[in-house]
Amino acid sequence: MSYTSPEVEARFKAIESATGRHPRKFDLPKDDLGRALAVSDYFGQYTFGTKEIKGAIPRADYDRFLEITNQGLPLEKDLADKIAKAVRNWALEMGITHFCHWFQPMTGTTAEKHDAFISFSDEGVAVEKFSGSQLIQSEPDASSFPSGGMRSTFEARGYTVG
């Protein structure tokens, strides 16, 4: 006689599988002569940050972005759409096809909800899409993440990362 549901048993099996893995070994990045690079030579090279925003949107919009972020104001929809377009273009150039909404529950763990840069038009045609709304999506209760009863909704925060 089992005291747990099939869903709970499946969850335990998934946790067992994930925690039973052996660490992967990675080679350090090397220069053309085979010497290991300093971390500062490659750290953040796949991060879309302020430098990338500056090079991807008009100067007036960049200045407005700096003013908004320095004052801690919410990102305006029109500016968020311009930055989202820049993020999407940068990501597709890098070969990135998916992004995730990253949660930091107050339980000391993290969780992710993955999504793709692909959407479908009304005609059912695949199109690359990433909107300002998706860029600035944040859910104080992380309600889009299926909790499965593992936490209360007030115990999480969500951020969009790619």
Describe this structure in words.
The chain is of the alpha+beta class and 162 residues long. 36% of the residues lie in helices and 14% in strands. The strands form 2 sheets. A 3-stranded antiparallel beta sheet has the order 2-1-5, with no helix packed on it. A two-stranded antiparallel sheet has the order 3-4.
What tags apply to this protein structure?
single chain; 162 residues; 3-stranded antiparallel β-sheet; 6 helices; 5 strands; extended
Estimate the strand proportion. 5-15%
Give, in spatial order, the strands making up the sheet with the most strands.
2-1-5
| Run of helices and strands | HHHHHEEEEHE
Radius of gyration: 20 Å
User: What is the helix tally?
Assistant: 6
Q: Tell me, what's the shape?
A: extended
Structural class: alpha+beta
Spans where pLDDT lies below 50 across 5 or more residues: 148-162
Helix content: 25-40%
Number of strands: 5
Give the averaged pLDDT, no decimals. Answer: 78
What does the largest sheet look like?
A: 3 strands, antiparallel
Question: What's the N-to-C terminus distance?
Answer: 44 Å
